[in-house]
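Holo prediction. Input below; ligand is NAP.
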Amino acid sequence: MKKIIIIGATSGIGYEIAMRYAAQGNQVGITGRRTDFLEEIQQKCPSNIYVKTMDVCKDTATEDLQALITEMGGVDTIFINSGYGKECKELDADTEMQAVATNAMGFTNLIIFSYNYFKTQPKGHIVVTSSVASVRALRQSPAYSATKRYMRHYVDCLAQRARHEKLNIRFTTLIPGFIATDFLEARQNYPLLISLDKACNIIYKAIEKKKRDVYLPFRWNFVVLLWKLIPKWFWERCW
Ligand SMILES: NC(=O)c1ccc[n+]([C@@H]2O[C@H](COP(=O)([O-])OP(=O)(O)OC[C@H]3O[C@@H](n4cnc5c(N)ncnc54)[C@H](OP(=O)(O)O)[C@@H]3O)[C@@H](O)[C@H]2O)c1
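Structure of the complex:
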């Protein structure tokens, strides 16, 4: 039986993965800002779902995480899945700063806490949701693209650090393309769009196998390879 905490599990990917783990009798801690959603989800599996209202942008987020860990009597896997990003037609500071607060500052606070927590344990697993938006510059969502890149890079640094410190902490970075959740804006034609169910099949396996970097669906590996071959001067003009 696994003890997993999913930060950002009131809807979409986090919710679906929480339900899968809970259905198999694992102990699952879930967080989000929408307390009513959390309570509703807990009612579905009251014996093994633990909930904590948490805004990752607030300084109290790590206290909330610690409280949830204590309530669960420990944790094996912490999945930092919360994220914010909107298309920014105008370069709007509020939208951009919300992405920075959630995906960079809130994320950093929580991953540092998670790393230091697992440092005191025999082993641990940290899972993070980045995005293919992290691969190249995206003028439509500068802060989202930049912060999702930051997340990946930060995880790479901690993975390197854990090896040098000889800690048994494993890391998984999920790099989704487009998944049919409320996160996507109501416009059509997202390339390589996949269903939430299909995405969560891949994510569940990736967590169980403790894979390192996971593009989903797999075809994004090839797209990203091509993107990386495009010179910056051409990318700036044509994308
Ligand atoms: N769907 C896609 O196509 C796609 C593609 C690439 C990457 N992603 C990434 O996948 C992750 C999950 O997204 P999703 O598609 O499942 O969308 P979603 O249904 O909107 O889920 C986002 C989750 O993050 C939580 N969250 C957002 N801001 C938060 C905050 N300040 N504090 C605490 N929790 C917060 C939300 O909970 P509350 O609102 O209750 O706080 C919600 O549970 C995100 O990191 C997103 O960037 C999604």
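The longest helix spans residues 93-119. That is the main takeaway for now.
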